[in-house]
What we know:
three-stranded antiparallel beta sheet, hpI Integrase, Chain A, two-stranded antiparallel sheet, mainly alpha, globular
Amino acid sequence: MTDLPAIQHGDDLAIRAAQAAHDSEGAYAPATVATYRHGIRRYIRWCDETGTPYAVPIDPRTLAQFVDDMRGQLSPASVSNYLSALARMHGDLDLPSPTAAGVVTLAMRRFRREWAATPQKKRCGRGQAKPMQRATIDRALQGMDDTLLDLRDAAIIALAYDSLCRASELVALDVADLEADESDGSGVILIRRSKTDQDGQGLHRYVSADTMARLSAWISAARLDPDSPLFVPMSRKGQGERLSPRDVSRIYKGRVGVAFSAHSTRVGGAIDQLGAGIASGQIAQSGGWKGEQMVTRYTKRLAVKQSGAAILAQKQGRT
Length: 319
């Protein structure tokens, strides 16, 4: 959190933010720290752009103006994440958070109502990732051969779909985290830490037999030992230490299509599971979601086809 933007109107906010980052080092998961840093940097950039003086604690009315100015630029979810980062910073500094103030709450309520009333095509922000479903994945896998790079990328894509892993979870895996079931050729991976498992108790995810075969082929060809990262970079200089989440997104775009992102396998896998008649609770379990809310969000379009109205139309022969 030391790479904050240059200060133009004073240094109190940057100093206090850096202090919070130092004090909380190692207390949060890397992905949480990245979101924390990004939220504070975005607020500081807004201060620079608008000539708003820095102040800690942040005045609630100033923060409400920040929220209002983000309308048309970002989604409510993104701004909510930024507010969470600023709230966490205040908490780490033992300061009262401005994010719970009524004026900020009302600004976010205005934002969400406006967003809900805006046609989806006109909304800002990235929205939901394009689903990468099984048929699309199979076409991509058919175009890969047995070169080292192809073996790695095929294994990443196949494992991401089976396990519904986030990109950060995929790149954190070691070879030793993969356990084969000799009875049927399937396997299990151990995710030592994830977004929903901050205490590091560990989560297990299923790996199909065909994906295990791809993983085994990659591990053997790359000559990885049990202590090695499961997915390593490939370059002219040889193998690096570990892929980054950004590398995962780059692989998806290069192998499957530029419209796909690092979250696409997670969305596509959830949609395919619902299409196969799997209950949303089981889908949530397979993807490590704490509840069914995200599953419902990812699969809402397909769920319409399984609604009572759709079932009735089928029974009446009106489909």
